[in-house]
Design goal:
The complex is a heterodimer of chains A (about 525) and B (about 325). Helix content of chain A is about 35%, strand content about 20%. Chain A is globular. With about 325 residues, chain B is an all-alpha fold. The chains are: A alpha/beta (about 525), B mainly alpha (about 325). Chains A and B meet through helix 2 of A and helix 1, helix 9 and helix 10 of B.
Amino acid sequence: MSTPLLEMSGVRKRYGGVQALDGAELTAVRGEVHALLGPNGSGKSTLDKTLAGTVVPDAGTIRIDGAEARIGGPRDAHALGVAAVYQQLSIVGDLTVTQNVVLGLEPARRFGFLDQRAARDRAGAALERFTAAFAGRLPLDRPASALGPGERQIVEVAKALARRPRILVLDEATASLHKEQVDVLFDVVRELRADGVLVLFTSHRLDEVFALCDRATVLRNGRTAGTVELAATDEDELVRLMVGDAPHQAPRAARAGAAGAGSAAEGPVSSPAATLEVRGLTTDRLRDVSFTVRSGEVLGLGGLQGQGQSELLLALFGGAHVGAGEAVLDGRPLPLSSPVKAARAGVALVPGDRGRQGMFAVRPIQENLSLASMHRRATARLALRGAAERGAATAMVERLRIKIGSLADPVSTLSGGNQQKVVIGKWLLDRPRVVLLDDPTKGVDVAAKEEIYAIVRGLADDGAVVILNSSDNRELTELSDRVLVVFEGTVVEELDAEAISERRLISSALRLGPGETL
Amino acid sequence: MTGAAAGLVDRVRGVQLSGLATVAMLVVAVAVNSALQPNFWDSYALTSNFATFVPLVAIAVGQTIVVLSGGLDLSLGAQVTLASVVAVQVVDGSLDRFPLAVAAALGVGLACGALNGLVVALLRLQPIVATFATSFVFSGLALVVLPTPGGSVPFEITTAYRDSVLGVPVALLLIVALALVWLVLRRHRVLRHVYAVGGDADAAYASLVPVARTRVWAYVLGGLFAALSALAILANTGSGDPFVGNELTLASVAAVVIGGTALAGGRGGAGGSVLGAIVLALVTNIIFFADVPTDYRQLVNGAVIILALALAGIPALQKRRPSA
């Protein structure tokens, strides 16, 4: 075979404390649909973005047609014939559909004045195939913000197609499309393949990968685990590549049992009356979610990232618009209308975006710790005593073993792990009965992770209801008594203690299994 | 043809609700003003009113472009001052040198805008802080160029500015001309990119829009409109004043908001800002004719601006409310 169209090698990229890509490799030829697969956080999107120019890698070489390509930005990628459909769409809501499709490459007359007719023609041509998705009429002059998620996704696809790429990157391009639109997209991709275009396809729907793609490259922890011919591969082999040959991790409950009569084992039975029951919870992104958690239990939320897990936690904390359903704590309905009411009812949320939602980075540790529970220590709900505030903060620092210089230092001076402990400690001072944790160990080093695990277990042992969302399957196996696998806003599977394993979590997240269709 | 008709419906639907609020405020302001000022509709009063509107309209158009790009220019008033004192020193009472003075003013606006743009887009400083800082540089330079009020504008210019053509005040024609310039700019790629960058800078970057260059352009255009504002002030007052632009900065931001442009960027347009500027100027008029004691004028003016901003914000709030 002649030189491959695309060769990426030794690609590395680090975000803060996370090594997203650690020497990833990818080789693909023209006229091929090449799948890019891997579990959460394996680096698929980052690799896609280095090719599209929105992420500049720390190291690595990219060769296109055998020549080394320097991609410093999206415009460089475009010059090399690369166009991308991004997972976080590159649609500007205030512009019309036409303006979005031609954005950055607007057809112009002399002196840069826009040729609006040519723009409409180009957008119309790019969207024509998808007319059915818009109820038969293309909304060329409507603002993109007025479109539904699927319609926007199609505009994003049309925008990439209008750039007439040699290499087309589709990152979760089918995520919000209906079956018929997916079929149209696949037809288009097959035509592009016949014309010699290379399509890089990332999707969390494995059946789509098998239906469309020729070969697949699997990433694991930022490295390439292997490239396979899909015709000669089955799903088990793909999952094996994604999980690797890491030693099988025993579920937490089994280990706890082996360690003797651990307090964790008796937690669930100690106060069987306290339960959180969620019935038919429905929001913009959740469909009819129901489950029950007992106090003393850690309920894990698994599945691929962004399937609605964070939204579920937010909804229980009163931070989402709840369309239907209810949550009942010990027989009393939980208020789901505002975070303040939720907190008063005994719910605490440790948010996923620690920096933006969890703490006041430049304020002292003391203030951050005491903030959520000040009303408990205030005299007549008004006056705070410095000694009481300091005492409460000091006790929490000791209890969680937060490594600090002084309570007066800003939180931003702490390491990621200790910052997260401050965020958790802030809520523990409010003595919550339900603790919601959204990816609590993201960007936290290994030692601090273990300590946070101990805190989470301790919370459950003290009788709290704990719900833990994690993008890290190993974390779920270590901490959870049960795991709910969430897929596209709904709970698709419940794994009990014996069934929890990384392998099982991944295959379940990818919706593999008997009788399952999409 | 149903497609075209439906497209028109979509376009009408795309018009901002706040456009109605702006027009309503204008109607109220005109009604109150004409009730308080008996000769409001006389041609002399009209001419005189429009003559005071032009500088505010021009700076409001400039501020609109910067705000649309997702920025804010707190140095526009100082740029007006600097451009006007430079122009008045250049013209020095001579009609022959007036074209040169126009070029000088535009040159000052261009340079100030380029400086702001580079500081914001390349050094990535916060626009509010960066332009607040450069405003002191520009004000300081203005004092060096013209330490005390003075200089003179040729009387042909001041006379023409307050003249009428076929019964239409020249100043009104200038306002129409500014609106036309805006409409022309809107059809240009740079303005499209300004909207895209202000709407979603990350998406614009991923869509091949030259984000930094577009931001610089927005500040440069803002500076050029500040220069036009300076020339209008000179034509209206006939002499230079090193403090003349001080109050225009706040007024320009207020006009933009009253005009329905989102301060977050990406949404709105200068048409509303033109009306917003006129509303603000009428409010000043009303306070004068309502016999508000001199000491209270600034207070009332500020309160009315806050009220107008709140009214203008209501439709925007409704639009922001999360929907399904």
